[in-house]
Amino acid sequence: MTSNELRDRFRAFFKAKEHPIIPSDSLIPSGDPTVLFTSAGMNQFKDYFLGKRTDLKRAASCQKCLRTGDLERVGKTPNHHSFFEMLGNFSFGDYFKAEAIAWAWEFLTGLLPAKKLWISIYEEDDEAFGLWRKLGVPEPRIKRFGQADNFWPANAPAEGPNGPCGPCSELYYDPDGKVQGPNSVEVWNLVFTQFDRQPDGTLKPLPKPNIDTGMGLERLTAVVQGVETDYETDLFGPIVQVIHSYFAGGLRKDEDRFGPEGLRAVWTIADHLRAIVFLLAESLVPSNEGRGYVLRMLIRRAHWHGGRLLWNRKSVAGGKPEYQEPFLAEMAPTLIKTYRIPYPQLEKSQHFILKAIRAEEERFVETLDAGNEQIQQELDRLRAGKITQISGDFAFKMKDTYGYPFELLSDIAQRHGFAVDQGVFKQRLGEQRERSRAGSQFGGDIFVAPTLKLPEPVPVEFVGYQALQAEAHVKGIWKQDQWVSAAGLGDHVGLVLDRSPFYGESGGQIGDRGTINAPKGTVEVVDTKWVDDLLVHDAKISHGTVKINDPVRTQVNPDHRLKVARSHTGAHLLHWALRKVLGPETVQAGSLVEMERVRFDFSSLGGLQEEQRAKVEQLVNDRIRCADSVQTATMNVDEAKHLGALALFGEKYGQQVRVVSIGDYSKELCGGTHLMHTGLMGMFRIVAESSIAAGTRRIEALVGEAADERQRQERPLLAEAARRLSRPAPEVVEGLDELLGQLKRSEQQRRALQVELAKGEAARLVANAKQIRDVTFISAALKDVDREVLAIMADAIRPALKGSGVVVLASADGAAKVSLVVAVTSSLAKRVHAGELLKAVAPLVQGSGGGRPEFAQGGGKDPSKISEALKRSEEMVRRALGS
Fold first, then answer.
1. Measured distance CA(179)–CA(194) in Å, rounded
2. Which CATH number fits domain 464-556: 2.60.120.430, 1.25.40.10, 3.60.21.10, 2.40.30.130?
3. Is pTM beyond 0.85 here?
């Protein structure tokens, strides 16, 4: 049975058990800032488990998951993965233990012999024991384990955390039919969430217990297909074969297989490439922080493991090791083909996926080149000092600054007879992780209790799509961190109403403003926000008093609403235009919709070219002039996606969604407020485009009156520029090019003159050189000379030296800038290392620097210490030469 058939069989089984089959959520959790990636099947059902949503009583899914907490184990075991698919069935206060156990047994025994299955339960869960026995499972095949193994969260009764928890029951498969045999494999975990742990440690029964089950598709497939490892299943087989074929040339003639180390590398590449492809398909891009950093590390780890398979290959032209050549993009199409049926989005995104992988691999090759040079310098320094261990601080610097894998450094060190201080490295890595965790928004706890709740729940009816006015009643007054019964003149409060036309900030759109009139008071609303399920009107009492249950009349500021709506409709048009110009892999990564101002973040591996930017702006303004109709409709989320509506990552959608359509070309799931037609936008102007992170760009744009005002401001500036250049306005750019060309030629002439003067100065310095034994030593402080000219001067001096020599030059540019250059003749480089010499004297001028044995450069901030630095350099040269 294939993995595709198993996935379909699971879903069909639970569909027959009246479970709605819910599509996999994104790997980037929808509307849940507490977790980095979707790591379990239950993540997308968090609100149901917490009781915030009640439109589902039961569900089943096959969820894409990613876990990164122990990547070091990937490749070392036959069934440990970063990315995996989790099959699961869930009950939200509906059925409980009896049904969950019976259905799990029914499904698995339909695939596997019952005599090869055995069960584990929590040691105190007699109910589960009785249910398994009732199904005919022999008592010896049911094992009781403690809370560390069979309770969720582990050890919760004794150690916490407080909140929902419960016992587990696991189903194991053993190919030999043994119980707790060496080949036993855990297949399915059933979690019975039936308790609420209290602060005093007592387990209070939940009024509506829940069921949360999880079964890894990879492990189930291996068991059903009768293979020993997940990497032999049809999920991994094709990509593993491609990896073997690609790297076969890396084997020595006396080898016929990769061996244990090579096999681990093959497994790691296969695992990581799968995770990489799925993350890129969701438009995540490599970066230096958060989720993008995880993606970058996965690509780099996979590439590095490829290098481990090719240690024995010869170098290619130019001396570049062949293991550094990018290869992952060549393999990715095989993996995409393997998953094209259950996940067609992979094939649709193939161009973007391959482009992103190739770009990141090439970037890593450059990192390796830079890192190799640093490592070579460090090894030379250690050899000179007869030191055999690379410090943990250096290893951490290589990883933190250059992204250089510790494993690669260790391999290089071992091949050159060095060890690496792993203890200090791990200590520094742990300190960094603690700093990151302290500053991270990702808490890692799926259940986070809300901080703002009314004493009694109040359903809020939002009527702002239909009207800007509404009659309502005050149901909550939040003042100074507590609920109060009344508020008076000057008080800053949060008002909760049972009915409101005010749009609460969400989806990137700012909240409405306006007024609320009570019988004895007036309230000015300055903002509106959703806090959990409460629509809170951020307001100030401008007259009289407001009390709980007061009848009120609300009024949204119509000008504010119109100007924000212009921006939101503009954001949709901008998204459409970007995808049209840059391609469908371009997706929204965030936005801020304000009054006639749009900030729009989108995924892109490169910035907008000037002609692309102009084309995007033109497309949006073309649609404005067409006054295309803007329509909204509410429908089932699956129907909306079937119609092609874009669902944005990071947003939480229910079963019923609102679709905003513009003409016949733009459809997005959106709860925001919009114009009736695009003509009401008036005008659209892009005012800035920049990079905010690797792979993420930001456009800032103006619409409506704000765009028109910007144009009015720019018109006289253009006229003034034309006047000063003595050209008509259409020829301003041509005039600027001519002026810049003149400036460039003048700079080139100045530079050429400076170089000639530097060469003349070089001859003077040679004539006044010192002799230290048989070595010529030149040091000098120069004025108004930059580092580039210093380097030219040093290069001019070296050929003029007779035999061996050292040149140390310094220059001050202003009161706070120092340039330093050190040059050493090749015959002397083993005794006097230019890079080490400069690294030692640069701190004297509050600077830094380094370089190769024959040439180094750096800078500093304290010109007053130049003479001291030159004196120190002479002392160090004398010491090195034994003088």
1. 28
2. 2.40.30.130
3. no
